[in-house]
Amino acid sequence: MKLRIARYTTNLNRMIDFYGRILGLKILGEFKDHQQYDGVFLGIPGESWHLEFTVSGHPPLHQPDADDLLVFYTATVNEFTALKNKLIANGVKNVPPTNPYWAKNGITFQDPDGFRIVISIAIN
Q: Which CATH number describes the domain made up of 69-121?
């Protein structure tokens, strides 16, 4: 089974910059003017999941919730620290999590659309 998490945005380039350049995901594919939508697929090559962001002439009607999270697990403490520092250096807003588990086991940031991501260390 594969997983695609799709979300509509108002600024595709901003999402590519955040999830690509800052977070380190790769562009796996993209499309232009497909039934009046542009979009991009971002993820890690070879994995069974990816994120899709789309944009068209209509504004999104969604609103971020403090518990709507994308959680990214790093393999090592060094990877966690480097990613956290890169997010902070790029001015990404660190926000307190609603769920106390994430305060103890990760760090929470907001993406350009106001949705939250958590960076944590994978526990084997």
A: 3.10.180.10
Question: Do β-strands 116-121 and 69-74 pair in parallel, antiparallel, or remain unpaired?
Answer: parallel
In the predicted model, residues of the chain with pLDDT beneath 70 are 124
Q: What is the pTM of this model?
A: 0.92
123: number of Cβ within 10 Å:
6
DSSP sequence for 50-88: EEEEEE-SS-------TT-EEEEEESSHHHHHHHHHHHH
Separation between Cα atoms, residue 8 and residue 83, nearest integer Å:
25
Distance between CA atoms of residues 50 and 108, nearest Å: 20
pLDDT of residue 124: 63
> Does the fold of domain 69-121 match that of domain 3-55?
yes
The first and second tokens of residue 60, run together, are 């999104």
Query: Which residue in 84, 85, 89 sits closest to 118, CA to CA?
Result: 84
DSSP tag of 22 = I
Q: Specify the CATH superfamily of domain 3-55.
A: 2,3-Dihydroxybiphenyl 1,2-Dioxygenase, domain 1 (3.10.180.10)
